[in-house]
Design a protein that fits this description.
Elements lengths: L12 E6 L4 E7 L3 E6 L6 H14 L1 E7 L15 H15 L4 E6 L1 H11 L5 E7 L19 H8 L19 H10 L8 H5 L6 E6 L7 H9 L4 E6 L6 H4 L1 H7 L3
Parallel strand pairs: 3-4, 3-5, 5-6, 6-7, 7-8
Antiparallel strand pairs: 1-2, 2-4
Helix pairs in contact: 2-3
Length: 258
């Protein structure tokens, strides 16, 4: 694993960026080289600690937006699909005037990163898909999370469920607000039958990273994701589930070469 020197890290700035497609709340950890972190159905809290780690170790600029509709933010009615949200993110990159952006997306955020990359923005130079959903793979279905209790979801999402953050007080069975926001973008299957063919058209370098113990989308699903992309590298992280940035952040950082 590459070890980079630590540095004093100033607190992140949190701003609301008013773009034409939608307003975004963005946590901005500025260290020059830009990384755009895209969270999954668990919301931005599942990426926040890793954003701080990446900014400190990589001496880079790390932006962690909250997808509209998550964490109590509004979702404009015109944003009804993952592709709609991807287009809004391309507009956000234009608004921020970023270049040489590396996308890092986990779960739904991985699918979103792929959709952003497919839009061909010259501002995007690469993508890292971490335990992404969105693909349809015969014999390897995405686990339906809609009726799972928090303990069931932890069991499927972590190699070691004791490392999972404790759910908010009062959380019970059934989808919470963030899961409802997720399904508004993905639909109930959390997949798009056209994605595999479209991924074949992607001409950016893509690193597909997977936890070997992922109970939401298994390793063979991840391998199929990588196989669909011409310029891809596939890495399996041992002793890791669906959320490597939470469970084994150092190992994920090492896989990224940081």
């Amino acid at each position: 694993m590459t070890s980079l020197p630590s540095a004093t890290l100033r607190p992140p700035r949190t701003t609301v960026v008013e773009t034409a497609p939608a307003p975004f709340t963005v946590e901005d950890r500025d260290r020059t080289r830009p990384f755009l972190l895209l969270h999954g159905g668990g919301g931005p809290a599942t990426m926040s600690a890793f954003a701080a780690l990446l900014a400190e170790r990589g001496h880079c600029r790390v932006l962690l937006p909250t997808h509209p509709g998550f964490a109590g933010t509004p979702r404009p009615e015109r944003l009804t699909s993952t592709r709609d949200l991807a287009a809004a993110y391309v507009a956000l990159l234009d608004e921020l005037d970023l270049s040489d952006v590396t996308l890092i997306g986990n779960s739904f955020g991985g699918w979103l990163a792929a959709e952003i990359a497919l839009l061909g923005s010259p501002r995007v130079s690469g993508a890292v898909l971490v335990d992404a959903v969105g693909l349809q793979v015969d014999g390897h279905a995405i686990t339906d999370v809609r009726g799972l209790t928090p303990p069931e979801l932890r069991q499927l999402s972590f190699h070691d469920p004791s490392k999972a953050p404790q759910p908010p007080a009062g959380a019970g069975a059934g989808p919470g607000p963030d899961v409802r926001a997720l399904l508004a973008y993905t639909g109930p299957t959390m997949s798009d039958p056209s994605l595999a063919k479209r991924l074949g058209e992607l001409r950016l370098p893509v690193h597909v990273v997977w936890g070997e113990s992922d109970g939401i989308v298994d390793v063979e699903y991840g391998r199929a994701f990588a196989d669909a992309i011409a310029q891809s590298v596939f890495t399996v992280l041992p002793r890791t589930g669906h959320l490597p940035q939470v469970e084994t952040p150092e190992e994920l950082l090492g896989a990224l070469g940081q």
